[in-house]
GPR12 protein (Cisticola juncidis), 237 residues
Amino acid sequence: NFAVRYLLRPPSEAAELAAAGLLLAAFSASVCSLLAITVDRYLSLYNALTYHSERTLGFTCAMVLLMWLLCLGVGLLPLLGWNCLRDQSSCSILRPVTKDNAAVLAVTFLLLFALMMQLYLQICKIAFRHAQQIAVQHQFIATAQATSTRKGLSTLSLILGTFALCWIPFAIYSLVADSSYPAVYTYSLALPATCNSLINPIIYAFRNPDIQKSLWLACCGCVPSTFSSRPRTSSDV
């Protein structure tokens, strides 16, 4: 998008619309991926007994494909009329998307963020309940239960807090600003949103044992014995 806007002189309408579409598709895929992980985490706790039998590889691939098709559909919006090429005064900070259309996207994002917060709240409630049940069944000492629960809450707080810090300033700026604002403000706020996609895999890799197993398998073709013997706890959410 930066190359099309500033390196191609003058940029063609097709290149400008395509660059904006790719940007929207990438941002949508980033947000939808986090939402899909949140929903998957919620279902893994809510339907713990049937989760592994229902979430087959084929089902997972179908959901990922459906998500990417939806995001590509969002990326086609500038080509389908969500652009200000005929009326430059209506442009938003996400030129050539109009200010009204950018506001719709920003509000949609804030609604998705509210949905994620609600799901994580439910995850915390279920994790607390599971931790209490495990503590009673296995007669764990109170400190061990508290430590496990605190770790789970710190993981959720880290994920949700990072997401909010990276995305909400950009979403709010999209609501209040227009194309007359300096472009440097847009890029300085869009950069953290883009970097959120780099930060999340690091958080998941260090905090989630399931993803650690996948990384070990992908990189080394084996899984350390410590993973196979380790039971799943409330901190793994």
Observations:
- The CA atoms of residues 135 and 141 lie 7 Å apart.
- The radius of gyration is 21 Å.
